[in-house]
């Protein structure tokens, strides 16, 4: 787990109806983990820690992922986490229990952090925060790094990102100031959010620990204390291969999922939520009523201009809706899309700069890829996860994966899983 400063919580046992039972050889303490050499293998199917993703459970999902089915399939993109888990029992503000963290996404990696990317942003419901978005809207550029954390740590994440850029000499184009993007969702059901436990060192650790390749999902980084459709949510990712305008491209999505009511949940087109909500009666879990938020970051190597990237960001709600949500009043649903192409657009120049872009009429495959990748990223945040107990003994169960898979099998929505991926 890259950039993690503290260990993940041990999952609860028997926390939800239909609780996960891993295949033979599963690692203790990791629900649904796969032992080396088991039938299901590869980054499409499991996280680096061995947690089974939605495709690993045979969920039938549209589209073809990139090599690791992650946002890091877009060349150069790196992701790092700092995960903070401490304490049990009653809430003592300032002491815990702590269930929080921070995620760092570097569009051009640590080595290229001084070169901005072209970007666009959009929102579905505005009860949330994404710093730097007005400057992004003005210039069409996203600078340094994107961080995602809890609602009361967003300022810390922003300020620490500037410190990181200054101390590591990231401002390489003569600019000695920055307005980086920092976004948030609320983790106060599980976490001592008013204890302000995310500090500068945690953000620096996430930034310094960012790497490419397969990344962890579930209760890690900024997603540590998050809840999705009444089950343990958090960090999720997916990617798609695209053919458009005579070229081959990659598009990836990363979500911090903290939204939705259990009764609304849809998996692979099957409305499983009503049945799951009925099964949960009396299970002792906290019901948040669906309050919460979602932050989504979309990355691509396709050459797109800022107005086209805004068009991608506006398609994020299509993918979210495929999982059952409709954007509630109390939710902060904010999205950003960036392209790693056109690096010359960010540098100083004495004259005109030549950029490349896909024709507008060729963007439909990218719109479809956004919807597919966002849907799968949300499902991965749910599937590759474990139950968690937080402040005052509040329990958030894991998605009852076995029950969901059985329901999908009953209606023919399971697909064969390739062991080669």
Question: What would you say this structure looks like, in words?
Answer:
- α2 (154-167) crosses α3 (200-208).
- The strands form five sheets. This protein has a six-stranded mixed beta sheet with strand order 4-3-14-13-10-9, sandwiched between helices.
- It is built from eight helices and 16 strands.
- The chain has helices at residues 133-139, 154-167, 200-208, 273-279, 306-314, 316-321, 364-383, 401-410; strands spanning 78-86, 98-106, 117-126, 141-142, 146-150, 181-185, 227-228, 231-232, 234-244, 247-258, 266-267, 270-271, 293-300, 332-339, 388-389, 395-396.
- The two termini are 20 Å apart.
- It has one domain: L-amino peptidase D-ALA esterase/amidase, CATH 3.60.70.
Name a few traits of the molecule.
421 residues, six-stranded mixed beta sheet, four-stranded mixed beta sheet, 8 helices, 19% helix, disordered N terminus
Brief synopsis:
The protein is α+β, with helices and mostly antiparallel strands and 421 residues long.
Number of H/I helices: 8
**CATH-scheme architecture:** 4-Layer Sandwich
The overall pLDDT, averaged over residues, is 88
Q: CATH superfamily membership, which one?
A: L-amino peptidase D-ALA esterase/amidase
The Cα radius of gyration reads: 20 Å
Could you outline the blueprint of secondary structure elements for this entry?
Elements: E1 78-86, E2 98-106, E3 117-126, H1 133-139, E4 141-142, E5 146-150, H2 154-167, E6 181-185, H3 200-208, E7 227-228, E8 231-232, E9 234-244, E10 247-258, E11 266-267, E12 270-271, H4 273-279, E13 293-300, H5 306-314, H6 316-321, E14 332-339, H7 364-383, E15 388-389, E16 395-396, H8 401-410
Helix pairs in contact: 2-3
């Amino acid at each position: 787990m890259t950039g993690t400063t503290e260990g993940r919580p041990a999952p609860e046992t028997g926390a939800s109806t239909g609780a996960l039972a891993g295949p033979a050889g599963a690692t203790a303490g990791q629900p649904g983990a796969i032992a080396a050499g088991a039938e299901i293998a590869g980054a499409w199917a499991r996280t680096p820690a061995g947690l089974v993703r939605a495709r690993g459970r045979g969920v039938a999902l549209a589209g073809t992922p990139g090599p690791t089915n992650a946002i890091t399939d877009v060349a150069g993109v790196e992701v790092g986490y700092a995960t903070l888990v401490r304490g049990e029992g009653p809430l003592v503000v300032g002491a815990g229990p702590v269930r929080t963290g921070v995620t760092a996404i570097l569009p051009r990696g640590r080595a290229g952090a001084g070169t901005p990317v072209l970007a666009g942003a959009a929102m579905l419901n505005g009860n949330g925060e994404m710093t730097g978005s007005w400057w992004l809207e003005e210039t069409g550029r996203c600078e340094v790094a994107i961080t995602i954390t809890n609602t009361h740590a967003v300022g810390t994440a922003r300020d620490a990102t500037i410190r990181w850029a200054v101390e590591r000499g990231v401002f390489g184009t003569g600019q000695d100031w920055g307005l980086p993007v920092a976004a948030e969702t609320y983790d106060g059901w599980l976490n001592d959010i008013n204890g302000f436990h995310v500090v500068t060192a945690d953000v620096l650790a996430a930034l310094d620990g960012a790497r490419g390749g397969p990344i962890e999902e579930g209760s890690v980084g900024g997603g540590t204390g998050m809840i999705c459709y009444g089950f343990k949510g958090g960090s999720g990712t997916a990617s798609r291969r695209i053919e458009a305008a005579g070229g081959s491209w990659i598009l990836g999505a990363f979500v911090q999922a903290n939204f939705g009511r259990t009764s609304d949940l849809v998996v692979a087109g099957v409305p499983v939520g009503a049945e799951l909500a009925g099964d949960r009666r009396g299970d002792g879990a906290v019901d948040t009523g669906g309050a919460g938020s979602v932050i989504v970051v979309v990355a691509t190597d396709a050459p797109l201009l800022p107005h086209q990237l805004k068009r991608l960001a506006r398609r994020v709600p299509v993918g979210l809706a495929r999982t059952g949500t409709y954007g509630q009043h109390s939710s902060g649903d904010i999205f950003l899309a960036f392209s790693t192409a056109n690096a010359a657009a960010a540098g100083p120049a004495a004259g005109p700069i030549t950029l490349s872009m896909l024709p507008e009429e060729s963007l439909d495959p990218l719109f479809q890829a956004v919807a597919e990748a966002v849907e799968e990223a949300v499902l991965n945040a749910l599937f590759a996860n474990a139950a968690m107990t937080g402040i005052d003994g509040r329990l958030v169960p894991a998605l009852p994966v076995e029950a969901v898979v059985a329901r999908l099998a009953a209606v023919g929505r399971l697909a064969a899983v390739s062991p080669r991926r």
